[in-house]
Amino acid sequence: MAVMAELTRRAALRLGVGAAGLLGSGVLLNPPSSYATGNAFPTRESGSFVSAARGGLETNWIIARPPGQTAPLRPVIALHCKDGDAAWVMDLGVEEELAKLTAAGHPPFAVVAVDGGNTYWRPHASGGDSGAMVLGELIPMLADKGIDTSRVGFMGWSMGGYGAMLLGTRLGAARTAGICAISPAIYMTYFGAPAGAFDSVDDWRTNSVFNLAPKLAPIPLRVDCGTSDSFFYATKSFVGQLNPRPAGEFTPGGHDVSYWRAQLPAELAWMDS
């Protein structure tokens, strides 16, 4: 499998989302009946919605929780790689690792995955904006699913690692609890990026991850990448420009599911710290 954006007010209005709806506390005000009666939420919940931000595409979502949870949990929004989807994220072992963390005494949290297509979690001239979908549609929806969205975390793999940093900085430090970018798809030049990643050289310059450094500074950040990954040198260069230096490490491994599964326990534990 081949592995391998701040939501503006104008974009929010296009989606019919007011500033209060996008940037409000998101605290659960009308808990679902399962919470109101004290029954445990399911460990895995899934569904779909028609996303206006993605041009009317049916968009699947999955929420994973540790077992036995009866109260709203803070979420980590997990963004898939290129050619992935919500189910791909869960297949990394998310549900099992959440259960292990909670059993070991870590505070519980939820992981939310959603289909985003291959648009790098940001708008393109061709139409559709999966980043706007996450910020303006998915996150507001979660309050009706027993999720406390007053603050959220982001994590992602490859294309999703880039997207996690992009969306975390767009949501802002006040609401972004932390970002974990795993093997992020970082392109040093426009011509080094695959077709469809950027619309033009100017688009690459505007949306390069290197422009995010000042906005990332106040947000807890972790970056992991394998030393045999094709993005290793670009990621190392990017990390070297960050102040403060992020958590995470460069360890042996490639740009593949084996590396990502091996890193997942430590990354979820970091998101919970």
From TrEMBL:
Its main location: secreted. Signal peptide: none annotated. The keyword Acyltransferase applies. SUPFAM superfamilies: alpha/beta-Hydrolases (SSF53474). Its EC number is 2.3.1.122, 2.3.1.20. This is Acyl-CoA:diacylglycerol acyltransferase. Keywords: Acyltransferase, Hydrolase, Secreted, Transferase. Belongs to the mycobacterial A85 antigen family. One of its GO terms (molecular function) is hydrolase activity. It is found in: Secreted. Pfam families: Esterase. It catalyses: an acyl-CoA + a 1,2-diacyl-sn-glycerol = a triacyl-sn-glycerol + CoA; 2 alpha,alpha'-trehalose 6-mycolate = alpha,alpha'-trehalose 6,6'-bismycolate + alpha,alpha-trehalose. It comes from [Mycobacterium] vasticus.
